[in-house]
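User: Fold this one for me? It's Addiction module component.
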Amino acid sequence: MSVQTEKSLLIDLLQNINDISIIQKVKNFVLHEIEPESLSENQKKELDIRILEHQENPKSGVDPLEFLDSLKSKYEL
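Assistant: Here's what I get for Addiction module component.
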């Protein structure tokens, strides 16, 4: 079964639940499961470097929407 199908089934089930405590339990479980992992020291250093580079030259990057458009074109999405 696809992820989208599973999501749709879960949403349908949740819409029919009238007990707020059950919904809160599901919400807490999901939030716990998707809790972000902490970054390694190397990842933190790399992000700090990128932030500094951006602060020094904010126009050096690529516009995110243009980048997404180029990916769509490249991969025919």
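One thing worth pointing out: The longest helix spans residues 41-56.
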